[in-house]
Amino acid sequence: MTRGQRWTSRSIGSRLQHGVFYLLIRSLGRRPAYVLLFFVVLWYTLRPMTRARSAPYLARRFPNAGRLQQLRHCFRLNWNFGLTLVDRAASGILGQFSITASRDDEHALKTLLNEGQGLILLTGHFGCWQTSSTGLEGIETPVHVLMHRAPDDIDRQHFEHAGTDAPFRLIDPCGYLGGSLEMLDALAKGHILGLMGDRTFGNDRNTVIVPFLGGSVRLPFSAYRLASVTGAPILVFFSSRIGPGRARHEIARIIRVPQGLGRSGENYIPYARQFALALEEMVKANPYQFFNFYDMWEN
């Protein structure tokens, strides 16, 4: 994609293709779905249109790779993305998914919640982010997540496969005032608010430019402005896939934003840079678990 083309949540697979995987998982389990996935990923990796989606990221993550190496990197990236999608479906269909975290990280989460200012969980499109909410099921504090579902999005969330209600309350960023009133209300009540820090929804007005992987990217600063208004701490975390149906939550940063910084995006650049640095560290350690399939870099 070029910089002028926006990210879309629409899946490149058809409803029938998704249905085949869901039926296979329900009938035979996760591992046969992995076998079918290998051939599907190989087919999509050979398609120029599909390779173009990941080319901007791979060119920056592996700048010295030759054409064959880039093809291998593309396959491994697509393969890992497919594995996370199979695991997400299996978590709902079979109820098989586990998330671990260190005791120190669990203690840090509880300590921040006990401050009573609410808590902003900030993550990115990395690893098993789509099933990371299953790790919050043991927390009594209500969770709200900013999430937009496009009308033509056929991907099912893990709770939709299970036929249950979402383990969190949805806030639509395309709703009234971008959901800002709902987010402020959630934090005022001391609740948890989940946001994505690495992708915009087509509006550059509420973004700032920060360094990332040798270039400049636009990141939203809404999380940092909310923190400044409410006094809520920001916990930056990522959910890495560590095996079939297994993930690990890892706290990468705790960001404190001073209150009263106002509306100007420039005031929030230092905090967006902290998030970008945390994400870059994760991407360097796990290059095939970053799933922003579009050109996010400024020209």
What does the model show?
There is one protein chain. The strands form 2 sheets. A 7-stranded mixed beta sheet has the order 1-9-8-2-5-3-4, with helices on both faces. The protein has 299 residues and is an alpha/beta fold. It starts with 14 loop residues before the first helix and ends in a 14-residue tail after the last helix. The protein has helices spanning 15-28, 30-46, 48-61, 67-93, 103-113, 158-162, 180-188, 222-230, 269-285, and strands at 98-100, 119-123, 143-146, 169-171, 192-196, 207-212, 215-220, 234-243, 246-255.
Gyration radius, to the nearest Å?
19 Å
Shape designation? globular
Largest sheet: 7 strands, mixed
Number of strands: 9
Task: Please outline what is shown here.
Helix content is 41%, strand content 17%. Strand 3 (143-146), helix 6 (158-162) and strand 4 (169-171) form a beta-alpha-beta unit. It is built from 9 helices and 9 strands.
Topology:
Elements: H1 15-28, H2 30-46, H3 48-61, H4 67-93, E1 98-100, H5 103-113, E2 119-123, E3 143-146, H6 158-162, E4 169-171, H7 180-188, E5 192-196, E6 207-212, E7 215-220, H8 222-230, E8 234-243, E9 246-255, H9 269-285
Parallel strand pairs: 1-9, 2-5, 2-8, 3-4, 3-5
Antiparallel strand pairs: 6-7, 8-9
Helix pairs in contact: 1-2, 1-4, 2-4, 3-4
